[in-house]
Amino acid sequence: MICASCHSNEAVTGETRCARCAPADSFAPFVPPGPPLRSPVGLGRATVVMLGLAGAVDLVALWLDLRPPSGRVTAAVGIAQGGLMAATAVVYLRWLWRVRANAEVFDASSQSKARWWTIGGWFVPVVNLWFPRRVVLDAWDASAPQGRPAGHGLVDLWWTLWVAGLVVDRLLRVDSRWGVLAAADAIDLAAAVSAAVVVLRLSRMQHEKALGGPLLPSAALG
Q: Which candidate among 27, 82, 92, 140 keeps its CA 20 to 30 Å from the CA of 172?
């Protein structure tokens, strides 16, 4: 095919102009169309900060559990725990939605749950005992470095602690003795720490895979 501009040189494959007539950016590497990747790092850090604050309050609550009861102080700490849990949940779910969307760009076929389960899976009774874990595991596997399987031990530890916390919370509704209360605060603290580690690890995996892979330009990580 002859160049459409100079009508003398051979046009570059896939172009209508030759290398001399076409602008340099016409031959940039092809980027496949599709949704852009968005960095989870900022949201991940915000989530870890919130989890850290929640864990700190859980630590204070655990310390109070080991002392003679003080109704006013205990009530204040309980309110702080509830408020921080709600605020942390909002930030965490935003981060989880971001990593789930990125995972779909990495490997849509590996996502076994529809994207809306990223949020709804936490609130639908019964399925909330395993759907959120599945969403995280699917994102985890899709974000693993190329050719290297991602172990699930860290995610399983976090989810075991989360479910244990739900069980102990149920027990508290029928038995609010010191032993159960202390166990609940200790499990909540451990769950917060393990969740923070999962958030940091998955955010880093996605960031490194996006920068090192050919899927989209790194500018899409903004």
A: 92
